[in-house]
Each structure stands twice: as structure tokens, then as C-alpha cells.
Specification:
The strands form three sheets. Strands 1, 2, 5, 10, 11 and 12 form a six-stranded mixed β-sheet that branches. By secondary structure, this protein is of the alpha/beta class. It has a single domain (26-199), classed as Aromatic compound dioxygenase (Protocatechuate 3,4-Dioxygenase, subunit A), CATH 2.60.130.10. It has helices spanning 2-22, 104-107, 168-172; strands at 49-51, 63-70, 82-87, 111-115, 121-126, 141-146, 153-154, 159-160, 182-183, 186-187, 192-195, 198-199. It contains three helices and twelve strands; from the N terminus they run αβββαβββββαββββ.
Length: 211
């Protein structure tokens, strides 16, 4: 039994080393990006559409955000891209249930994973996050992605064009990683809808020239 345990440990080491050396590291430092691997559903089973916890139409209007992920050429849809999002609740707090492990201790439980379909499409429905209690930042939704052959990296957060805290000064400082993250929400009756297309490699440090 001990012999097989050693063999298993060795195989895990080899596989880990293989993945490390065959994935070009891009995007620079990314605190918490490894949370993308904490999904309860295997990557291959993820859907392109998801609903985050606490979504309700009872006295509320959820927000639906959709878009297409494009390859670095800016026009070819990118299938199989893993997307991880998380954000605060309506009070601007990352809510916890008390039994969180890993990055959920900081990100809270309002988070979700999805995978772009064959047309590069993704969509998620949630409740609009609130600003932090000290109102020092616009309301936002964090996003991390993992595309085939590369390590995970973060993109510009989803921001809302009607947020009074999203001033011209703040917009001037945005990096536009993956393209602009500013979303214009449209009231369609029972919910708000917005769109954001994502461009892989755009303004991402060390991204391969040809991918």
C-alpha cells in the first residue's frame, strides 16, 4: 500500500510539472485567481449560462449580463473558456455562511463558474452588487478567466455605466484588460440586461503574440 502511495504521489508531481511547463504564464500577479479551480462542477461539465446565489424576482429586478469571448484576433469566437465571477451583496458585503473554505473565505458565496459554448457565448444572472460600505469604489463584479493552454488571469471588473462613483478620473485609470468592462444596463421590464464582449489577450501582459 505504501509503495502505491509513493507511485501515486510521483505521478501527481509529474502531471503538475507537465501542466506548469506547458502553460505559458501570462497576466502578471493575480491574487485569488486560483479560486477558479474551486468550482464544485468539473470544467468539462460547466454550462455557458448560470445563475448566481440569491437571485430573486420577488420585489427585485435581477441583472443579466451576456456576451461573446473572442480570440486574440478579435473576431474568432473562443469556445471552452472558463469564467469565474464573484461580487458583494446588495449591501456591499461579501457574504459568508460560516463554513467557507479556500478563497470563499474572502470572496463569499455569491460566485459562479461558466464555460463559453461553441460560439464563445456566456451569460450569468445575478442581483446588482452594492458599493462597499465606505463607498470608496464603484460597484463591481470580479472576473477571472482560464483559456485552454494558458494559466488563469483576471480581467477588468464589470462596472456599471450609471454608477455615480464611476467618474471620468476612475475610467481614465482602467486597464481595459480583455476590453472594456463597463456595462450599460437596460431595463427590459422584469430585469436589467447588459452586454460585454471579451477579447482574449487584449492588454494582458506577456500574452503570446500568436495564440
Amino acid at each position: 500500500m505504501k509503495k502505491w502511495s509513493i507511485v501515486l504521489m510521483f505521478l501527481c508531481f509529474v502531471m503538475g510539472a507537465f501542466i506548469f511547463w506547458h502553460e505559458k504564464k501570462v497576466g502578471g500577479p493575480c491574487e485569488g485567481c486560483e479560486a477558479i479551480y474551486e468550482n464544485p462542477v468539473p470544467f468539462e461539465e460547466l454550462q455557458s449560462v448560470t445563475k448566481l446565489p440569491e437571485v430573486s424576482w420577488e420585489g427585485k429586478k435581477p441583472v443579466g449580463i451576456n456576451g461573446t469571448v473572442f480570440k486574440a484576433d478579435g473576431k474568432t469566437p473562443a469556445a471552452g473558456v472558463i469564467i469565474y465571477v464573484y461580487h458583494t451583496n446588495e449591501k456591499g458585503i461579501y457574504p459568508k455562511k460560516g463554513d467557507e473554505t479556500g478563497w470563499a473565505k474572502r470572496h463569499g458565496y455569491i460566485r459562479a463558474w461558466m464555460k463559453t459554448d461553441e460560439k464563445g457565448n456566456y451569460k450569468f444572472v445575478t442581483l446588482r452588487p452594492g458599493t462597499y460600505p465606505n463607498h470608496n469604489e464603484p460597484a463591481h463584479i470580479h472576473i477571472t478567466i482560464k483559456e485552454p493552454g494558458l494559466n488563469e488571469y483576471y480581467l477588468d471588473e464589470f462596472l456599471f455605466s450609471d454608477d455615480p462613483l464611476l467618474t471620468k478620473e476612475r475610467m481614465a485609470k482602467l486597464e481595459n484588460r480583455g476590453g472594456s468592462g463597463i456595462v450599460k444596463l437596460v431595463d427590459v421590464g422584469n430585469m436589467y440586461k447588459g452586454e460585454r464582449d471579451i477579447y482574449l489577450g487584449k492588454n494582458i501582459p506577456d500574452y503570446p503574440a500568436k495564440k
